[in-house]
C-alpha cells in the first residue's frame, strides 16, 4: 500500500469513528504521529458480552457468577440469586454511582454558596438575586422584607436538607406537579435525603440483603429522584445564583476556536468555579502582558465537556468539543495547557498530553491522575491556582516544539437557554409564561418536546446518533432540548443557529421563525437536565396538557451514553414519568422479568418507561409514537383549525 493509499485508508477509518470532521482530522494525525487515542483503544478492547447483558454478578467473592443471557433462567448464582436479582442490583448500583457523582457535585456547589453568603470568600458573589428569591419562593421560604443575605442563609439551610435529611421529603419535591408527587408517595419513592438514598441503595444491593428485583428497582427510582430533583437541581440553581442565569449568547464551537498565535488554555470538567476563576486570570493585565512578552497575541480560554457548556451558556466562551474529542484536541499541538477538575476525565489524557509536551493539570482533590501535574484549586484563594495554570501555559507557548495543525471548522450558534429565559422568550417581560408553548402543542404546530442528552461513546460513531436523531425529531415538528455532549454535537453540526429552522417541519419552523429561535435549545451541562424537569413541570402547571408529568407529550433520549451518570439521569426521568430511550448499549438481558419491568411495568405504575435501540431512526420513531400516544390520550391528536383573532377578541384577551 502506498503512503497516499494508507493516508486515504486512515481518513476513511477516522470518518467511521466520528461524524466530527475536526476530530477525524486529528485521529488521522494521531495515527501518523503514532499516538493512540480512545477510538483505537475501543477498537482493540472487545466488550464483555456477559457484562454488557448484565448477566454477571460481582457483589461477593463466591463468584463472580456468570449467567447465560441466552438461557436466563437456566441457572442461578452461587447464593441462589436469579438473573432478575443480579440485573436489578447491577442497574441499581449504576444509578447509585451516577447519583453520587451529581450529588457530590451539587453539595460542593452548596458548600461554596455557604462560604460566599458568610463572606468567607471574596472572589465570588451572588450575581442573580432575582433567581435567589425565585428559588426560595418555590420551596416555601418566606422572603418578605428580607435582605439578600437573609434569604441566602435561609435558602442554604433549607437546601442542605437535600443531602443530610433522613426523614421527610427533599425541598424541591415542592416543585413536582401534585399528581406526580401523589403517585410517588403512593409508591414510596419520594426521596428523603440524597445521602440516605445512595447509602441505602448500596446496602440493599450488597449480597444477602434485598433480593427482589421490584423492590430493588423501587429504591433505584428513589435514589435517582434524589439526583434529578436534588443534587443536580441544587447544583444548577446555585450555579445560576452565584454566576448568573444563562440567557442566549452567540458562541463558536469546534476545534477551529483554537488560535495558533495565542496561548490556548482548555478547561475540561464539570464544576464552574474553576472556569469562572480562570476567566478572571486570563483577562488580568499582568497575564495578558506576560503572554505578549512570550510572543503571543493574547490568551485564548476554551471549554470542553460540561463546565465548558456552562461557560459557553453564561459567557459565550468558545467550546472546542465533547467527551470523545478531549484527547484528539491535544493532537493539534496548539493546546498550551489543559486543566481538569472532575467527571468524564480520561486517564489516557496524560499519555497523549505527554506526547505533545502539553501540561495536563489536575485541580481537584477528588481527581488526581498519574503522570499529570496537580495544582490544588482552593475557592478561598482561587487566583493562586488559576494564575499558575496561565503561567504554565505561557511557558509552553514560548517553548512550542511540535507542529501546530488546527482544524478550520468553527460553527457559530446561539446557546444559553434556561427555564427563565424560555419563560421570557415565549411571553415577554409582562406576560412571560409557557402558554404559547402549550398552545402550539395543543394546536399541533409543535408535536411535542424531546430532551436529547448524554455523552458520546467510542463504541458508536461520535455525534452521528445525536445528529441523526435530532434531525428526525425536528423534521417531525418535535422541539428538542439539549444538554451536555449532545448539545455540543448539535452545535458542531450547525443546528444551534436560528437558520437551522429550515430543517424543521412546517409547524415547528413557523414557531421558530416567529420567536427567532433555533429548533434545538441548548440548556447547559449534564446536571442542567434539571432545567428540563422544571420546564416540564411548568408545562403541566400552565394547563391543557394533563395533570402529571406522565401525561405530557414528551420523550427523552441518550443516543451515545457511556457514563453511570447517564443511567441515573435516565432513571430519574423515567421515575418522573418520561419515556426515555437509550442507544449504543443497555445493561440488561431481554426476555426477563426485570426487562419487562423497566420497559413496560413502570409505565403501568403511573411512571415512565425505558426504551432501547442502536438505530437513531428507530429511536426517533419510538419517541414520536410515544408523543402521538400521549397526544391522543389528551384528545389533541388532531390539529386544530387556525382562527384569526380580531381586535375585539384581542381586547378581551
Q: Which key terms come to mind for this protein?
A:
single chain, 653 residues, alpha/beta, Substrate Binding Domain Of Dnak, Chain:A, Domain 2, Rossmann fold, 4 domains, six-stranded parallel sheet, five-stranded parallel sheet, 25 helices, 49% helix, disordered N terminus
Q: How would you describe this protein?
A:
With 653 residues, this protein is an alpha/beta fold. The chain has 4 domains: 3-50, no CATH class; 56-243, Substrate Binding Domain Of Dnak, Chain:A, Domain 2 (Up-down Bundle), CATH 1.20.1270; 255-398, Rossmann fold; 413-634, Rossmann fold. Helix content is 49%, strand content 9%. It is built from 25 helices and 15 strands. It has helices spanning 3-17, 21-32, 38-44, 49-52, 83-117, 129-138, 148-164, 178-187, 194-204, 213-243, 272-282, 285-293, 305-315, 348-355, 382-398, 419-427, 435-442, 464-475, 484-492, 506-515, 529-542, 564-576, 593-604, 616-634, 647-652; strands spanning 56-57, 65-66, 249-253, 263-268, 299-304, 335-340, 360-362, 373-374, 411-415, 448-452, 478-482, 520-522, 554-558, 579-582, 610-612. The strands form 4 sheets. Strands 12-11-10-13-14-15 form a 6-stranded parallel sheet, with helices on both faces. A 5-stranded parallel sheet has the order 5-4-6-7-8. Helix 14 (348-355) links the parallel strand 6 (335-340) and strand 7 (360-362). Helix 1 packs across helix 2 and helix 18 runs parallel beside helix 24 (616-634). It starts with a helix and ends with a helix.
Amino acid at each position: 500500500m502506498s503512503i497516499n493509499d494508507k493516508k486515504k485508508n486512515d481518513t476513511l477509518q477516522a470518518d467511521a469513528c466520528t461524524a466530527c470532521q475536526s476530530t477525524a482530522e486529528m485521529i488521522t494525525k494521531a495515527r501518523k504521529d503514532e499516538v493512540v487515542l480512545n477510538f483505537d483503544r475501543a477498537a482493540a478492547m472487545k466488550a464483555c458480552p456477559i457484562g454488557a447483558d448484565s448477566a454477571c454478578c460481582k457483589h461477593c467473592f463466591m463468584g463472580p457468577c456468570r449467567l447465560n443471557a441466552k438461557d436466563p433462567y437456566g441457572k442461578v448464582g452461587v447464593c441462589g440469586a436469579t438473573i432478575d436479582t443480579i440485573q436489578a442490583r447491577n442497574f441499581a448500583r449504576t444509578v447509585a454511582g451516577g447519583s453520587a457523582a451529581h450529588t457530590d457535585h451539587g453539595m460542593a456547589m452548596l458548600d461554596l454558596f455557604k462560604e460566599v453568603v458568610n463572606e468567607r470568600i471574596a472572589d465570588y458573589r451572588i450575581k442573580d438575586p432575582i433567581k435567589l428569591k425565585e428559588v426560595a419562593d418555590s420551596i416555601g421560604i418566606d422572603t418578605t422584607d428580607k435582605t439578600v443575605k437573609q434569604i441566602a442563609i435561609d435558602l442554604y439551610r433549607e437546601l442542605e436538607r437535600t443531602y443530610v435529611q433522613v426523614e421527610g421529603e427533599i425541598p424541591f419535591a415542592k416543585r413536582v406537579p401534585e399528581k406526580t408527587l401523589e403517585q410517588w408517595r403512593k409508591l414510596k419513592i419520594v426521596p428523603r435525603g440524597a445521602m440516605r438514598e445512595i447509602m441505602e441503595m448500596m446496602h440493599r444491593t450488597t449480597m444477602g440483603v434485598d433480593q427482589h428485583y421490584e423492590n430493588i428497582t423501587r429504591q433505584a427510582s428513589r435514589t435517582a429522584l434524589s439526583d434529578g430533583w436534588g443534587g443536580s437541581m441544587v447544583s444548577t440553581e446555585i450555579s445560576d445564583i452565584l454566576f448568573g442565569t444563562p440567557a442566549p449568547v452567540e458562541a463558536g464551537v469546534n476545534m477551529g476556536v483554537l488560535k495558533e498565535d495565542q496561548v490556548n488554555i482548555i478547561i475540561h470538567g464539570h464544576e464552574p468555579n474553576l472556569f469562572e476563576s480562570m476567566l478572571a486570570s486570563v483577562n488580568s493585565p499582568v497575564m495578558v502582558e506576560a503572554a505578549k512578552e512570550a510572543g503571543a497575541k493574547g490568551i485564548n480560554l476554551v471549554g470542553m465537556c460540561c463546565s465548558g457548556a456552562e461557560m459557553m451558556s453564561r459567557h459565550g466562551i468558545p467550546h472546542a468539543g465533547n467527551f470523545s474529542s478531549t484527547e484528539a484536541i491535544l493532537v493539534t499541538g496548539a493546546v498550551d495547557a489543559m486543566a481538569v477538575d472532575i467527571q468524564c476525565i480520561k486517564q489516557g489524557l496524560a499519555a497523549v498530553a505527554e506526547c505533545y509536551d502539553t501540561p495536563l493539570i489536575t485541580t481537584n482533590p477528588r481527581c488526581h491522575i498519574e503522570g499529570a501535574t496537580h495544582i490544588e484549586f482552593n475557592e478561598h484563594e482561587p487566583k493562586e491556582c488559576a494564575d499558575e495554570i496561565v503561567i504554565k501555559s505561557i511557558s509552553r507557548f514560548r517553548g512550542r516544539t511540535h507542529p501546530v495543525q488546527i482544524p478550520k471548522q468553527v460553527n457559530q450558534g446561539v446557546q444559553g437557554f434556561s427555564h427563565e429565559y424560555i419563560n421570557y422568550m415565549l411571553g415577554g417581560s409582562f406576560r412571560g409564561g409557557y402558554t404559547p408553548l402549550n398552545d402550539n402543542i395543543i394546536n399541533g404546530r409543535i408535536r411535542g418536546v424531546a430532551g436529547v442528552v448524554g455523552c458520546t461513546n467510542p463504541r458508536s460513531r461520535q455525534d452521528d446518533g445525536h445528529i441523526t436523531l435530532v434531525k428526525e425529531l425536528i423534521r417531525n415538528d418535535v422541539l428538542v432540548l439539549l444538554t451536555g455532549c449532545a448539545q455540543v454535537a448539535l452545535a458542531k453540526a450547525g443546528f444551534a443557529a436560528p437558520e437551522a429552522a429550515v430543517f424543521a417541519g412546517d409547524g415547528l419552523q413557523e414557531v421558530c421563525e416567529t420567536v427567532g429561535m433555533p429548533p434545538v435549545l441548548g440548556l447547559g451541562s449534564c446536571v442542567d437536565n434539571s432545567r428540563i424537569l422544571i420546564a416540564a413541570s411548568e408545562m403541566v402547571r400552565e394547563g391543557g396538557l394533563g395533570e402529571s408529568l406522565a401525561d405530557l407529550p414528551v420523550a427523552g433520549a441518550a443516543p451515545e451514553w457511556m457514563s453511570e451518570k447517564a443511567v441515573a439521569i435516565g432513571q430519574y426521568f423515567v421515575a418522573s414519568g418520561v419515556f426515555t430511550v437509550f442507544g449504543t448499549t443497555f445493561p440488561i438481558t431481554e426476555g426477563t422479568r426485570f426487562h419487562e419491568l423497566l420497559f413496560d411495568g413502570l409505565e403501568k405504575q403511573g411512571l415512565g418507561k425505558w426504551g432501547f435501540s442502536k438505530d437513531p431512526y428507530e429511536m426517533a420513531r419510538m419517541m414520536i409514537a410515544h408523543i402521538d400516544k400521549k397526544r391522543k390520550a389528551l384528545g389533541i391528536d388532531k390539529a386544530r383549525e387556525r382562527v384569526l383573532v380580531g381586535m375585539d377578541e384581542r381586547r378581551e384577551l
